[in-house]
Amino acid sequence: MKKTLNDALILLSVTLFTVTLFTMTWTIKNTFAQETNISEKTRQELVRKAADYLRTSQGEDGSFSVSPRSGIGPTAIITAGLLQNGVSVTDPIVAKSLGYLKTFVQRDGGIYAPPGRIKNYETSVMILAFHLANTAGEYDTLLKDAEKFLRDSQFDELDGYSKTDPYYGGVGYGNDSRPDLSNTQFFIDALHVTGHGADDPAIQKALVFVSKCQNLKSDENPPSQKLENPDGGFFYTNAGGGENAAGRDAAGGLRSYGSMTYAGLKSMIFAGLTSEDPRVKAAEDWLKERYQLDENPGLGKRGLYYYYQTMGNTLSALGKEFFVTKDGTQHHWKQELIETLAKKQQTDGSWVNTDPMWMENDPNLVTGFVLMVLADCK
After folding, report:
1. Which region holds residue 328: left if phi is over 0, alpha if psi is between -120 and 50, else beta?
2. Residue 239 carries which DSSP code?
3. How far apart are CA 181 and CA 283, in angstroms?
4. What is the C-alpha separation between 170 and 234, in angstroms, rounded?
5. In this predicted model, what pLDDT tens digit does every residue of 53-77 receive, in sequence order?
6. Whole-model pTM?
7. b/e string for 221-249 if b means 16 or more Cβ within 10 A?
8. Contacts of 310 by beta carbon, 8 Å cutoff, 6+ apart
9. Cα torsion at 333, 366, 346, 374 (round to 10°)?
């Protein structure tokens, strides 16, 4: 009798525990779903307001913010951002932009504004825009030619460089400019969106360059630069003597900063590296210690919206709903980005940075970056 009673009590305890656990799990999931629905509605409203603003700021020829410095890049970024958020290719704002961009297709396959000061960068973002618009294969030839142009712009053996050279595998603004991590990640992005995987030779060559932009001593990154603090983050470029917006440390090493660390991590992911690779782990650890949305870590407000763009794109590539920081906090990064951007949207629907670095005082360019972020936050 006693044994039967004990068994009944045990069964009752297990049942109560199971019910409690189920209730807690359901509550958490339901709360998360409700918060996600609210965030998605907010995201869609931000996109709508942004599109309404861009309809008023577009030039008669379909362009946005064209200047000798910015080229046609802002127009491509905005067009891609609109398409990523579901605006149709037949919508006048997109159709006019595509018509304008097509006029810059060059004989060498590149898509850039003459004389081609930033032709690799422009061609990379053009590939993203025209790939998204290629609904019926009408841009197949254009994309194929642009891809060949980009591949030819990569520094490799054909240009006389070996794997130990700081230039090797990288891409710069133009064929005659030194390579940097920002342009190289746009190059990798362009190949990635057009269906090329980690086994692509050009992406593997790019990985060699990307690894050399990391503050980490490894077989892939010989100690050719001074690494006073090998923290695992990334800097702009070690080529041509080194250049970096975050400057150098006391020993002369190039300091890591947020947007380049996200760019480096994403590039490594697209190149097939996993979290088991020491380079990836070191980059993730750097970001886990510095996760924030108020500043571009290492640069303050400089390049803040480019930081958001690389952040959203990288965390989306990681495929995780939550980003866990060093202290164990789980950040629902999509929701946090949406909430941050909602607070920063101007009354006219645009976004703008108070810091003019990298032309982020241009509301058209910045709004294009934000549209890309919001697409990653779906």
Report:
1. left
2. G
3. 14
4. 14
5. 999 999 999 999 988 888 999 999 9
6. 0.89
7. beeebebeebbbbbbbbbbeebebbbeeb
8. 185, 259, 260, 262, 263, 266
9. -30
Is 137:174 a contact under the CB 8 Å cutoff?
Answer: no
Q: Residue type at 294?
A: D
What is the pLDDT at residue 24?
Answer: 44
- Residue holding tokens 């994403």? 266
Residue 109, both tokens: 């396959």
Confidence band (pLDDT; 50, 70, 90) for 6?
Answer: low
Task: Work out whether the CA dihedral 121, 122, 125, 127 comes out positive or negative.
Answer: negative
Taken as a whole, the chain contains a residue count of 378
CB 101 within 8 A of CB 113: no
Evaluate whether 273 touches 232 at the Cβ level (below 8 Å): no
CA gap 227, 215 in Å, rounded: 7
Residue pLDDT, tens place only, 251-279? 888 999 999 999 999 999 999 999 999 99
Q: Is domain 2-376 in CATH 1.10.10.10, yes or no?
A: no
Q: What was the pLDDT predicted at 169? A: 97
Q: Are 181 and 246 in contact (CB under 8 A)?
A: no
For residue 313 the two structure tokens come to 């794109």
Position of tokens 């005659």? 176
